[in-house]
């Protein structure tokens, strides 16, 4: 379940390889994708391999984990914008095949229901890629979110807003709420790969390693899943 590699570069290469293997095995695969600084080198590797013709990605479907409420898709810090910049535009993926929660939906409850249902209608996620927040969140499932929740609107914790403030020119601009895939949806993926790199993840990875399954630590839900890889570099694994 835990795989520790020396460097961030090796971790990114390994994660990209897992994604490529999934696409090679099933070109119409349904992938669950994540955002955040951790994923940038993963997507850079993936794009490099796909542009080199490693496998055909044109029939993929993707669903992102989360999106901020109130940011337009063109906002530079929206996750839609992130995905366009790091993956969708670079691969020329058909936009009807890529999905993110709609942070501007008028009826967000209905949008949440439809999001989980759309994934299930396609037979579920073949692989879910995850990062981890410094408080143990996955997607934007903050501590004490019920593991039985599907896609839902969530307030963001002060810690998460502080952590993500580094991407905004004014940290006060970080939205207060987001839409996230629920832990129940995440656990239905056939395979899960969680990636954590760098010293800022060392404390939470040690906590996760020693924690029982506990809603206080959202990532601990993964311990109930039969096919999870937790990929770490030496720095993120330093306190385990
Ligand atoms: C955000 C995202 C998470 C991501 C986490 C870690 O809060 N909602 O999906 O895993 O940040 O991000 P980073 O990789 O930048 O540390």
Automatic annotation (TrEMBL):
Catalysed transformations (reactions): alpha-D-glucosamine 6-phosphate + H2O = beta-D-fructose 6-phosphate + NH4(+)
One GO MF term attached to the UniProt entry: glucosamine-6-phosphate deaminase activity
SUPFAM superfamilies to which the protein is assigned, alphabetical: NagB/RpiA/CoA transferase-like
InterPro entries with a match to the protein in the record: Glc/Gal-6P_isomerase (IPR006148), Glucosamine6P_isomerase (IPR004547), Glucosamine6P_isomerase_CS (IPR018321), NagB/RpiA_transferase-like (IPR037171)
Pfam families registered for this protein in UniProt: Glucosamine_iso
Pathway: Amino-sugar metabolism; N-acetylneuraminate degradation; D-fructose 6-phosphate from N-acetylneuraminate: step 5/5
Residues spanning the signal sequence: none
Subunit structure: Homohexamer.
Family from the record: Belongs to the glucosamine/galactosamine-6-phosphate isomerase family. NagB subfamily.
Record-given protein name: Glucosamine-6-phosphate deaminase
Organism: Halomonas mongoliensis
Gene coding for it: nagB
């Amino acid at each position: 379940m835990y795989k520790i590699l020396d460097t961030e570069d090796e971790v990114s290469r390994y994660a990209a390889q897992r994604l490529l293997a999934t696409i090679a095995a099933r070109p119409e695969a349904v992938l669950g994708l994540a955002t955040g600084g951790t994923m940038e080198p993963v997507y850079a590797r993936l794009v490099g391999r796909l542009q080199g013709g490693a496998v055909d990605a044109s029939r993929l479907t993707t669903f992102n984990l989360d999106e901020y409420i109130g940011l337009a898709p063109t906002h530079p810090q929206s996750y839609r914008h992130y995905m366009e910049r790091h993956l969708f535009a670079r691969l020329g993926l058909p936009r009807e095949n890529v999905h993110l929660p709609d942070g501007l939906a008028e009826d967000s409850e209905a949008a949440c229901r439809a999001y989980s249902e759309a994934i299930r209608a396609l037979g579920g996620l073949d692989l879910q890629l995850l990062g981890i927040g410094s408080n143990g969140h996955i997607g934007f499932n903050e501590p004490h979110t019920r593991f039985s929740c599907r896609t839902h609107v969530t307030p963001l914790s002060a810690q998460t807003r502080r952590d993500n403030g580094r991407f905004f020119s004014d940290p006060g601009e970080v939205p207060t709420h987001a839409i996230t895939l629920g832990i129940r949806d995440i656990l239905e993926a056939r395979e899960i790969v969680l990636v954590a790199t760098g010293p800022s993840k060392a404390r939470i990875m040690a906590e996760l390693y020693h924690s029982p399954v506990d809603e206080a630590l959202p990532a601990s839900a993964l311990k109930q899943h039969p096919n999870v890889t937790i990929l770490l570099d030496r720095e993120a694994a330093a306190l385990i």
